[in-house]
Amino acid sequence: PAGPGGVAVPWAGLKKWTLPPDYSGITIPEKPKLKFMDKVPAVPKVRREPRRLRDIRGPSQVATDFTQGQYGILALGGGYLHWGHFEMIRLTIGRSIDPKSMFAVWRVPAPYKSVTRKSLGHRMGGGKGPIDRYVTAVKSGRLVVEVGGRCEFGEVRPFLDRVAQKLPFPAVAVSRESLQEMRREEEQRRLDNQNPWTFERVVTSNMLGMRKYLSPYDLRLKGRYWGKFFLKHRV
Amino acid sequence: LPGAGIGAHTERCPAAWLPALQLLRRGSKAVTRHWKAMHFQRQKLLALTEYLPPRPALPPRCLPRPAPRQQQEDGYARVLRAQLEATLRASRMVAVCQYNAMADEDVATLRHFLRRHDIHVKFVLNEVARPVLAQSKLRNLLPLFVCRNILLVSPEPRAREMLRVLKGVPQVNLLGACIDDTILSRQGVENVARLPPLEVSQGQTVAALSLLPSQTCSLLQRGPAHLTALLEQHIRRLRGAGGAAEPPPGPGTGNH
């Protein structure tokens, strides 16, 4: 409230007591900590597989919504997670959660895709290099880990943000409500866009021959994705 | 066959034609670790199809501010109001004082000294007190409930002791009071304190009222008493003048 001269005069009213959060429907599973992920799958691949970068490109169709937990890390770009990342996530979250009242769950599989690498300092040629490591492909919009239990978003967010910063793709800590809010805002932006020209419209009707300069995948990606990057500001 | 291909495609998107040759001049793949440079036409298209936020004809800051939403009824506030109502009903003296910051031990000492004279100190919140006072008989005390207040309530009107205690505490200033259904200002309270106690004033009133009746008796006796005094004087003179002279037959000492 403002006093004379526009200066804010502080006054204290009655304290509004809020009810504590209701954790009645939450069960903590038997193994609340994150499972250890192998560096190499149990049956290592013999045949070296092609790069297939399309498993990074575009939006994710799997693991986009919450299943068990209430908070998680959402990937906002595509990338590969290798064993080092898995260990970092597992140890950081394992250190920060209290196993009696919180739990964490993986939403990405263990590394399954073999990635080859030629030894340094050699010229091109001589065949494909040997398998260097195994990675997991993550597309944008996918949840990486989920955390749940008798905790608030404010308690969980600091360490989830730290983990999200260390991942090879841009990521953000989300809760069920914040994800819903994000999606709703996106939808609202799409609806109240005042620009009569949208990427989707131009591409589907191939205005001005634009498809000569665009990829056939842009029909599906609609200008929001470029390579492995997710363009958040685009509608 | 090109014709068949174009015909099949035109069924799907009749208003468009498909390019025969896709541009694939650059060496890098579609998905790269670095930010791949876009074709200029693509950049132009992205610049054209950017998001434009809606612009209302009148900016929202020019419109009047929306009325503040009614806060939900707080159970705790209800309880406090009921308690305050009960206290006000049960007390004969209610004094409103301004409270400035005091140390805890000073507050405790003040409470102790006032409690000795059966005066209770109550801290009230304005947002709780205002609706209670507006409906009670103390609504003229409403303008006093602006800053931080305390209420000194007591079942007996002990103005003198209260003023004495409050004189020693500069942080608590008396603003007004309601003693025995009479709203008083600070001066009024001081005058009330200077009044004598009830029994003494009652006795004084009775004495003042019975002053005239008490004089009635002596007034009525004044005439005969005067006559008696004159006759006595006469007798003394006669006795003194001639001892043999017999006293005249008079009414004597007439006690009428």
TrEMBL record, chain A:
One example GO MF annotation: structural constituent of ribosome
SUPFAM superfamilies per record: Ribosomal protein L16p/L10e
Domain of life of the source: Eukaryota
GO cellular component: mitochondrial inner membrane; mitochondrial large ribosomal subunit
Keywords: Mitochondrion, Ribonucleoprotein, Ribosomal protein, Transit peptide
One Gene Ontology biological process: mitochondrial translation
Subcellular location: Mitochondrion
Chief location of this protein within or outside the cell: mitochondrion
Pfam family, any one: Ribosomal_L16
InterPro entries: Ribosomal_uL16 (IPR047873), Ribosomal_uL16_bact-type (IPR000114), Ribosomal_uL16_dom (IPR016180), Ribosomal_uL16_sf (IPR036920)
Family statement drawn from the similarity comment of this UniProt entry: Belongs to the universal ribosomal protein uL16 family.
Name this polypeptide is given: Large ribosomal subunit protein uL16m
Automatic annotation (TrEMBL), chain B:
Record InterPro entries: Ribosomal_uL10, Ribosomal_uL10-like_sf, Ribosomal_uL10_bac_type
Gene3D superfamilies: 3.30.70.1730
Keywords: Ribonucleoprotein, Ribosomal protein
A cellular-component GO term for this protein: ribosome
Pfam families documented for this protein: Ribosomal_L10 (PF00466)
Family as reported in the entry's similarity comment: Belongs to the universal ribosomal protein uL10 family.
Name of the featured protein: Large ribosomal subunit protein uL10m
Organism: Molothrus ater (Brown-headed cowbird)
